[in-house]
Design a protein that fits this description.
Elements (H helix, E strand, L loop, with lengths): L2 E9 L3 H11 L4 E5 L3 E5 L6 E5 L11 E5 L2 H10 L4 E7 L4 E7 L5 E7 L2
């Protein structure tokens, strides 16, 4: 599995209410995407970013990280072969992401994803 990036997913009750802090105070002023329940804010200078999640729309649990990989199908095969618990099956979401969730040691839920055009 080749990891491209790791994005923290911070659970917040209201993305709109949290926006000013992340964009104005911390300078993550570029809103790369906003689906209503998840939004990514990025620094235009450094590329540092965070995702705010108010509750995953299609998965049974919220994830603490999104791990972007170059081949999500191969990654899925690897984690299944390793006996890792799959929390959410491999699916292609309507917003163009193919993903699955796993439970890491310590109970943390990770979103393993690849963007598709």
């Amino acid at each position: 599995m080749r990891v491209i990036s790791v994005i923290p997913n911070l659970n917040v009750p209201d993305i709109d209410a949290a926006r000013e802090f992340w964009t104005d105070v911390l300078g993550l002023s570029t809103e790369e995407m906003n689906l209503g329940w998840v939004a990514r804010f990025t620094s235009p200078e450094t590329g540092a970013h965070v995702q705010l999640v108010s509750g995953d729309a299609t998965a049974p649990e919220d994830s603490v990280l999104t791990v972007r990989v170059d081949d999500v199908d191969a990654a899925y095969e690897e984690v299944v072969a390793a006996g890792v618990e799959v929390v959410h099956p491999l699916v292609t979401e309507e917003w163009g992401v193919r993903r699955f969730f796993v439970r890491a040691p310590g109970g943390l839920v990770l979103n393993i994803a690849q963007h598709h055009a």
